[in-house]
Amino acid sequence: MTIARHDQLKANGSGFSRRSFLHQVSAGALAAGTLSLRDVMTLQAAELRKQGKSVILLWMGGGPSQFETFDPKPGTANGGPTEAISTSVPGIKIAQGWDQTAKMMDDIAIIRSMTNKEGSHPRATYQMHTGYIPSGSVKHPSFAASIAKELADPKFDLPAVVSVGATQGAGFLGVNFEPFVVADPGSLPQNVATSVESTRYRRRLGLLDKLEGEFAERGGDVVVENHRQLYGKTSKMVLSSELKAFDISDEPQSLKDSYGDNTFGRGCLLARRLVEQGTTFVEISARSSQANWDTHQDNFERTAENSAMIDPAFATLIRDLKDRGLFQDTVVLWTGEFGRTPKINPRGGRDHYPRVFNAAIAGGGLKGGQVIGASTKDGSAVERDPVTPGDLFSSVCRAINVNPAKENMSPLGRPMRIVDKGEPIKALFG
């Protein structure tokens, strides 16, 4: 796929965009009775998919300390030894160790007033991946799966959702939106080579389909349908020429070095290649990349090691997306499940703290070069402009033209919004 697919739709001289034209034409046709509501929704969904919007989630599993990332408090008791460094935007300072990210601050918005109530890793991770608090009655789809359902092209050969490291699944949205998990980013996935030539392989698939058809007739139709979807997705990917997107060996060595020769760096480079090819949502988990942010002890040494890995990859990803004309249509979100306590514990660590933490967001036409919200001087609470997980997810949705209030029907017959609650952060769209 060419970069042109990702070029943002622009209004013509009269300020009339192709998308608004489709909306007005379909609305008129609906009023005239020539199109049904389902026809109109299908047209609008198809148009949405043509826009080539994508999301890259940089997941800081374990909960990164806001004091050692983007909300340092030097010279205070809670700030510890961490110093602040200047960025490319006058007046904005971030923690030492983020030198490369500091150079890209014109493109990044820092949110220093994230707030939540979930302080347990499993519950907070679930919420920050689905937008919902865990419930025993339903397995919610991941935010990635919900976005892919709205944006992904069903004819696309590669998975709509790819994750470097384990992540939340598609829940009741089904196998079509399950994440394809990559253990070793940068090389072709394991077991994608066929042992026979493609014609014979397709014949084998035909035989499998016949056998499954007989099983379906005997009452196994639900199992067969799920199995066929899974095998259909896998077979399409295995036989596709687009599979080479997973192999970064043809990238310039200088670019690979800039990202970093580690799992996280290679994952970020892979993410750029995948969204360029047409993948809708890519997650790179720092926790699976030996960068666990759960720093109950030795916080300052461990966060320095983590920052040294994440900083160059984050900055290079933004630069690379810009160089390839993908930045306007790709949202890059940096976040973890919560922050760390202002008080430093006796082991030189910081504990779980959802009351106030930080996140960073860039791309997707969002306004960078700014700080949104603030924590108090001692970092113990939000001082102004609180932002909830629902607000954050609603902002991502708006940036990629997805309605966060869109409902999917759960197996219990309950309509569930893509984002449970929240409003887009106005400052990001100013």
Question: How are the SSEs placed, and which strands pair?
Answer:
Layout: H1 18-32, H2 37-50, E1 54-59, E2 84-86, E3 93-95, H3 99-103, E4 108-114, H4 121-130, H5 143-151, E5 161-164, E6 180-182, H6 198-238, H7 253-259, H8 263-277, E7 281-285, H9 299-323, E8 330-335, E9 339-340, E10 352-353, E11 357-363, E12 370-372, E13 374-375, E14 382-384, H10 389-399, E15 407-409, E16 415-417
Parallel strand pairs: 1-7, 1-8, 4-12, 5-6, 5-7
Antiparallel strand pairs: 2-3, 4-11, 8-11, 9-10, 13-14, 15-16
Helix pairs in contact: 1-2, 8-9
CATH superfamily: Alkaline Phosphatase, subunit A
Task: Tell me roughly what share of residues is in helical segments.
Answer: 25-40%
Order of helices and strands: HHEEEHEHHEEHHHEHEEEEEEEHEE
The secondary structure category is: alpha/beta
Which topology does CATH recognise? Alkaline Phosphatase, subunit A
In the CATH hierarchy, the architecture is 3-Layer(aba) Sandwich
Q: Please give the count of helices.
A: 10
Distance between the ends: 32 Å
Radius of gyration: 23 Å
CATH class bucket: Alpha Beta
